[in-house]
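Design a sequence for this backbone.
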């Protein structure tokens, strides 16, 4: 007697007989290769790429409000970093840099929390402008795709991994900056766009990210006092985290919790290396 047919646990919403791990980056529906439509980052389902969706009218005055509401973590990070930089500049007597910067010698003495606090401080106007610009440019793309909690865990894990690399391979001088976390976002975008590299749109995005990343990695060769170790650590963490996320459904029960667990595992492993070194 034939067994009754059942759809695979992860199946295309239009073709239930086709197992898949791809998901629409806009609505989260599971889609097969035939239903996948290339997007700037990731892929979309046919419904999210119809002309009606592309020509939807949004009042101009509401665009900024909607974007902030859809990406609260990105805007909160920009706000916190900017506020703390203002405190550094206008209230030097508080000695916030000395109290919270990444001093490798003090981390060796047990002040491991400096790996977290240092990623919210900056060493100058150009430093914070560049980091916040990149965060504003790429952060919303990842936050909308993976969700705010997952995105926040990615940011923190990249920052901690960058701090770990600086602690292990740096010069020993005090360091501040969100560069480790920012490069974590770079790495995640590279990993997320890697699958689409064989398509025309995907190859263009992947190539642009690669050029931008190469420029930033080369900066320490020409600009002194840049902690390239933190850049490299954040980049590696972001690639590892997003590569693992890319093998999981974007939506579904427990998907966000699994993404957060992966990011916390990578960040926790980096912190453990520092504690045991």
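Sequence:
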């Amino acid at each position: 007697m034939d067994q009754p047919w059942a759809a695979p646990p992860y199946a295309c919403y239009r073709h239930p007989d086709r197992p898949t791990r791809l998901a629409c980056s806009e609505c989260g529906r599971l889609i097969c290769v035939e239903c996948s439509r290339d997007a700037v980052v990731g892929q979309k389902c046919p419904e999210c790429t119809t002309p009606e969706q592309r020509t939807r009218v949004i009042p101009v005055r509401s665009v900024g409000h909607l974007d902030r509401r859809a990406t609260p973590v990105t805007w909160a990070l920009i706000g916190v970093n900017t506020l703390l930089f203002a405190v550094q500049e206008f209230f030097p007597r508080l000695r916030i840099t000395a109290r919270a910067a990444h001093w490798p010698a003090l981390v060796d003495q047990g002040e491991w929390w400096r790996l977290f606090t240092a990623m919210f401080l900056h060493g100058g106007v150009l430093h914070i402008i560049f980091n916040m610009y990149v965060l504003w440019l790429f952060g919303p793309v990842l936050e909308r795709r993976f969700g705010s909690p997952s995105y926040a865990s990615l940011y923190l894990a990249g920052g901690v991994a960058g701090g770990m690399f600086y602690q292990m391979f740096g010069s020993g001088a005090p360091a501040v900056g969100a560069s480790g976390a920012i490069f974590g976002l770079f790495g995640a975008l590279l990993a997320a766009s890697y699958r689409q590299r064989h398509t025309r749109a995907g190859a263009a995005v992947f190539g642009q990210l690669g050029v931008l990343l190469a420029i930033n990695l080369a900066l320490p060769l020409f600009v002194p006092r840049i902690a390239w170790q933190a850049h490299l650590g954040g980049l590696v963490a972001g690639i590892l985290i997003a590569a693992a996320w890319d093998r999981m459904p974007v939506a579904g029960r427990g998907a966000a919790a699994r993404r957060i667990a992966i990011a916390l595992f990578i960040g926790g492993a980096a912190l453990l290396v520092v504690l045991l070194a």
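The chain has two domains: 8-54, 72-276.
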